[in-house]
Each structure stands twice: as C-alpha cells, then as structure tokens.
Amino acid sequence: MPIQSRNTLRRALHLTSALVRPSLAILCMAPLLTFGARAQTAVELPTIVVRPETPSTTAGGASDGPFTPADTATISGVQAQGATLSTSDSGSLISRIPGGAAWGAGGVSSLPAVNGMGADRVQVSINGMLFGLACPNEMNPPLSFVNPAMIAGARVYMGTAPVSVGGDYTGAKVDVSVAPAQFTPGQALTTHGSVSGFFRSNGDGYGVDANVTVSNEDTSVTYTGGWARASDYTAGDGTTIKSTMYETQNHALSVSKKLQDQLFTFQIGGQFIPSEGYVNQYMDLVENKSIFGNARYEGLFDWGKLEATVFANRVRHTMGFIEPDKSGDMPMDTRSTDLGYAVKGTFGVSAHDVIRLGNELYYNNLDDWWPPVEGSMMMGPDTFITINNGQRLRLGTFGEWERHIDDKWTAVFGLRNDIVWMNTGDVQGYNEMMYGQNAALFNAQDHARTDFNVDASAILRYEANESSLYELGLARKTRSPNFYERYAWSTNAMAMSMIGWFGDGNGYVGNLDLAPEAAHTVSFTATWHDPAKKVWELRVSPYYSYVLDYIDADRCALSTCPNLPGNLTTTDNFVYLQFANHDAWLYGVNIDGKLALWDDATYGKGAFRGSLNFVQGQRTDGVNLYHMMPLNGVVAIDHSLGHWSSSLELQLVSSKTLVSQVRNEVETSAYALLNFRTSYELDMVKVDFGVDNIFDTNYDLPLGGANLVNYQVASMMGSSAAWGYPVAGMGRSFNTRVTVKF
Ligand SMILES: [Cu+2]
C-alpha cells in the first residue's frame, strides 16, 4: 500500500479510536444536541477534535468504524446525562431519536423500538456485550443493565446499516458505550469525576449517580454506577398507576491500558434490582441480579486496525407479586448465561478502499422454571419447566467493502452470514393431569433447529456539495426466533398468560415451525445544512421494509387452546395466541431539523429544534402490526445565556387507531405535553430543574400496553384484569438534580 494512503488510514483510525473524557464529547455532538448547549460548552472546554461518543467495538463489528450512515442517530453522554433529570430508564432514551419509541414495561425496563420494529428486532450491545433473553416477559432487556447516567454515548443504526454493525436483528442496532478509557497527559495520576443526586416529585423518585476516573497518559481506571428508586407514579387525572414502582442499581468498573498503538480494556460490573412493578404484566420482578465481564483489544498496524472483544454475563431473575397491588404466591425463575467473542479487521487496501472482515460467536443459555406452589392443586406438586437448558448459538461472519469513488461518491457493500443453532431439553408441567398432554407432545418432537441466515447491505452516498448529502441504502437483515417464540409449549390458560413481552395481557404459545424473519429494507436520507452546520440543518429519511416471515401471532386454534371457539373471534377481550410467520410491510419517514433563531450578547443564543416521525405497518393479510407509534413530533426552543441553558419543549402525539386486530390492541387518543427544563452551571457545580407535563395532562401511552392492575372485574379467581384500559402516562412532575464535579 502506498505510504501516503497508509498514513491517511492510520490517521483516520487514530481519530476514530481516540479516547476522550465524556464531558468533551459534547463538542462534536451531532444532530440532537441543542445549539445552546454546544455553544456554551465550546466556551468552557478546550477544543479537542476527536470523534466523540466512541461507542465500543460491538460483538457485531465496527461501531467506531469510519462509515456511519446518514440516518444513524446518536445519543451523546451529555444528552444521556440530561435525560436523567426526567427518567432512570435507559430504554426510554430511544424515544428521543428520529423514528424511536419505547414499549412501556417496568419503570427501568422499556423495550426500544425503531421505525416500527421493537423488542428483539432492536439489538442492543453494551460495550460489545449482548444480553440474551432471561425472562418470558423480557423484564430485563439489555438497556436495563445500564443507568442513563452511565451512558458515555450511544449510536443507533437503522435498518440498512452496514453488515459489520451486527447480525440477527431486523429493526435497528443500538451500540452503547459505558466507561470508555479517558487518558490524561503526563505520567502523574489525576483523578476526576462527579457525584449527583436527583429527586422527581411524581412517584417520589430519587437516587444517586457517581463516576470517578483515575488516569494518566497510558492508564485509565473508571468506576461508574448509580442507584435509583421510585414509588408508583400518578397520572394527570390523579389516578395512581399501580405496580409502577422500582428500585435498581447498576455498576461498572473499567481498566484500560495503552501500549503505543494497542489499547487493552477490561471491565466488570453487575446489577441488582430488588423490585420492579409491572402494570402491563400479570407478574412483577422481585429480584434480578447480574454479573458481567468483558475484555477488549484495539490495535493499529501498518495494514489497518484489529479489534477484538470477549465477554460473559450471568443473569438470575425471579418473578412474583409485589404487595399490595398484586398478591398471591407464584415464584417464577430464570437463569441465563451469555458468552461471546468478536474479531474484526479493518484493512486500508488502497487510497480509495477499505475492507472490513469480521467473525463473531454468541452463545445464550437459558433455564426457565416455576417452582410448585405449596397447597395449590393447579400449581403443584412438580416444578413447571418452561425452557430446559435452552441453547442458542450464533456464528456470524461478514465481509464489507467501502469505496471512496471520488470526493462526492462513496459506496459500501457488505455480505454477512449468521448460522443460528437452537435446542432445548424436555419439559414438564406442574402436574400430569393438567399439563401432561402438552408436555408429552412437545417432548416427542425434535427441538433442534438450525437457521442459515444471509444478510446484505449496500449504501451509496452522494455529497453534492458542502451543504447537502444524499444517501440510498438497501439491505436484507434476518432475525432468528427467540426461545419463547419457538419453544414456549403449554396451552394452559394460566401458563400462556405468563408468556409475552408485549404488555397486552394476552397469552402466547410457541411454534416449533417458525422460520427466521427477513426484512428487505430500502431507505433514503437527504440532509441539508449551511456549510458550517451552525445555522440550520434538515434531515429527511423515508424508508420501506418488506419483511418475509415477520414473526407475529395468530389466534390460537389448537384443540387444547383455552376458550375455543370464542378465542378465535372475540374483539373485546384478552386472547390466546400462537406465534406465526406472516409477510408484512412497514413504511415511514423521519424528519428532524434545527434552526438558529438569535445570537447576541444580551439575549444569548436561541434555537428551534423539531422532529416528525411517521410509521405504518401491516401484514399482507390485512392485520395491522402491533405497537406502531402513531404520528408524533417535537417542537422546542433551546436557549443559552452565560451559565444558563434552558429548553421549552412541546411533544405532540396523534391518536392510535390502527391497532392489531389479532391481539385486540387498545386504541389511544391524541395528546400534547409541554416540558420545561433549565440548568445553571458554575465551576464544579451544576443544578438542573425541570417540569415535565406542565399542564398535568391526562393521556394514555400509545405503546404502554394494557393496564392489568388498576382495573379489575369479578371472576372465578376473585378478580381479574379488565380488558380495554391502556396505561396512562405520568402526570406533572417537578424534577431536580444537583451535580458536583471534582
Ligand atoms: Cu420476568
């Protein structure tokens, strides 16, 4: 390779792997950051030009690779910090990006959705680690293993992202960085960090976050972690939304060492959630414990860059009922292990060409069992085994070619293969009489499944001039079914109601015949801005996906399914469903932009920020897809003056009327919320204050699922959930946070 191009590549790679204090990350923070915050920071901090939010190397490949598609969304560490004023739920941060939304779950366990694809369709990696399924209700999704204040940066890659980003997802890939290395000049060790505490009036939420780094020019040791708790929140009409309390703590300790062009990082951490209520599930989380470790390597060589990651997680999860909103006795346990590695090489083969090659292995093991309930005829005398030594092994391999054709045109082509092997052992129910037939039928079948998945992505970028860019993306992305989609086996009404991460109150049974779903997506992104990107910016991203064998559900028609034949036709009750493949399409458009309004010494800087998101999705048989976020947008004014920065934000959501007929999804009404926040930062102290939902508007969460706790009807069991009630969102909340840096 010519010396010049090698040096160019080397410099480029150096830049992308440059490591910075998260607080400096703001300088280059992309589209979502307000003008105000950026301007203010620029005054106070030295100008260090590096790529900021350096998310980690992912198990799927390059997150800090040089090619970032134009529709990629970023969440900076500063934005994540800012969000902690309002929420302790990292999953909910996804609702702040273009096309992003969050399925309501427990208070710190929302499931992310992007461009209409949610839950398992969005793959989340945290410092390159993947967290497999460890609960039939997905109560412990990957983003629940990190508090928002721990996030140093995140990137969200959309459905046509390069194949090096990852495999086994169809919607989006979220790549989160926690406690990245932060080197400081010289051999002397320096210490810096921050401690903050917060209080939110609605639900009496409070907690602390801390991070501290000891570093010099080649060594960095960082701890980051936090603890938060809250009681049930109150809706705008004064109703206490039951089973929404939570308590959580997450911790991570990271050690990095730099040896010339090599960077080694070791990280350990863990989580403890002693209780988390679920208003849209029949169960609550009564204990979740995890421990993880990962090691990462990045090295620069004459030929390019080598990155490697290896990781392990262990999760232990227990469900039960949290008094007084839910009562009774029904323990449910899971134990999950994740192991994986990823290796990626980036080769600068010419002045115009970069080749990426990668290989990754990801293994998830799951046991899910429900101990017998003493004295219960129905739930005893044996242990109910849902998943017995479930195994899911995925081997992914990709090749990618990025060509800089000339100074206007860039093309990226990639091909990827993921082989997924799944298997599980034999099962049993609480007793032979009620569950024996189902169990025997399941045990008589072969459970081993192998999927040979082929993904591809092609991106063509045209930078017409310094103020406009156009990009076309084409991709095929495949996702194999998860454990419960394939292996949940019981058609007993109670057992079915325990399965499902949809929050819809319905019951689910698996399907051994499920095929992987394959999304074929075309997207186009146009961005326009003033040459310096200081005055205005507009980005428009339409997309269309045709998903072969989209994994949805049908009304359960098996002869053993409950409530037949009414289950097949009812339109106003909870139903029993079986996972099934259906072809489906989704399309939509995301628009976001900003505009500087004024800038002078007396009135500071003011800027307008806005976004609009639209998505629709339907199966080819006419059934609407579940949890499609209705048309929504944000208009906001951001202001900064001296040490102050403030914003006033109006969030607008239209009514949800296109609902899944097969799940009897409940419609929700349109609403508007007005939020205000301001912060004052002086030397080492920062004080944040905000009011969410200023007018105490009463509204229902479009993706909040069914409220199964507040509304009850008399039944054989005494009382049971009434159908037809969505989950109301939070009413007004006064929020404060005080941060001390050192
Ligand atoms: Cu659970």
From TrEMBL:
Record lineage: Bacteria, Pseudomonadati, Pseudomonadota, Alphaproteobacteria, Hyphomicrobiales
Entry-linked Pfam families: Plug
Compartment(s) where it occurs, according to its Swiss-Prot or TrEMBL record: Cell outer membrane
Protein name stated in the entry: TonB-dependent receptor plug domain-containing protein
Keyword set, alphabetical order: Cell outer membrane, Membrane, Receptor, Transmembrane, Transmembrane beta strand, Transport
Predominant location category: membrane
Organism: Xanthobacter oligotrophicus
Membrane topology: Multi-pass membrane protein
Domain TonB-dependent receptor plug: 86-171
